[in-house]
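User: I'll paste a sequence; please echo it back and then give the predicted structure.

Assistant: Echoing your sequence first, then the prediction.
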Amino acid sequence: MRAHELRSPVSIAIVDAGGHLVLFERMMAPYGWATGNISLAKASTAVMFNQSTDAVAQWGSQIPGFASSMAAMSEGKFVMAAGGWPIRLNGATIGGIGVSGGNASGRDDEIARAGLAVLEPARYVPPQPAYAQARPAGAALPQPPVYVPNPQPQSSPLPASPERAPLGTVNLDMAEELNSQENPYGDGPASSDQYSENSGGRS
């Protein structure tokens, strides 16, 4: 830990994206009670403005009454001093870290940045599909499976049926119909002479 290497009895606070305290560590020091609140205020300020507290101090000091009004509205969780940084994961701010109690100028900011360096490797990497994993150089990409439908059995064509006349329709051949029926008056139709004899020659 960088604070132990520098022999700086600091207080370290880590908050989530909503400014709620997640982790806190206070190294033994006579003035540790004050550094604890300041470290929490630095972490909250870094999350509040999504930038380092040193950057907030540079532009915030040019606004009259900005520091006092922000401290009152945040109930003391705002401070303009170096030592606070937002914690980002894959480009999104997920929290903040604040350090207070450094025994030299710039120690708070240096220890805070060292804490961020420890968190940098812990990035979320989404799982990759099997075909996107590492492969030898020059190897061709595997092709997705091709769907081949099962062949459907072909039904044999039905035999052609003779054409049928529509229902309710009768085809009549008058000559054939006359020849097929029996003449009730004898063989063949009566001639006009026979009719004349039977009728006595009357026309």
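Residues 2-119 form a domain with the Beta-Lactamase fold (CATH 3.30.450.150). The radius of gyration is 53 Å.
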